[in-house]
Sequence to fold (131 residues):
Amino acid sequence: MFGIGLIKGLSVTLRRCFSKPNTVEYPEQRLPVGPMFRGGTLDLSQEKCIACGLCALACPNNAIELATEKTESGKKALTLYRHHMPVCLFCNYCVEACPTQAIHWTQNYEMSSLTYDEQIIDCMATKGGAR
Ligand code: SF4
Ligand code: SF4
Fold:
């Protein structure tokens, strides 16, 4: 029938006019990220970390820089833990390699910066990559 396409199109438009929007008004409104989100930076729990270095060993791109020292009790302790975001592949190997679940991804996806140095995150000094 002549004009059926037009009627169908208008009905879709009318339905959309009265339905809930699929978009949010960012940055005032933010959608929650999923539980499997990989991004932002590494959130390090210093209490859980045993300074074994397995995360850095598992990293294929040397994106984790860590240093350790021996404490008076003979245990290893972290002295440095940096996540180099510009070379990170977000492959998750480091998180999977950690035997104590000491590292997780932050839920922060607003990690852009003007300089390269700001992309190197000192995970011991920041909580969840907050700057
Ligand atoms: S996600 Fe992959 S590339 Fe990034 S720090 Fe972990 S192991 Fe390295
Ligand atoms: S693998 Fe886990 S426990 Fe070992 S140094 Fe890395 S964050 Fe710490």
Notes: The domain at 34-122 is CATH 3.30.70.3270 (Alpha-Beta Plaits). Strands lie at 42-44, 64-70, 76-84, 103-105, 120-122.
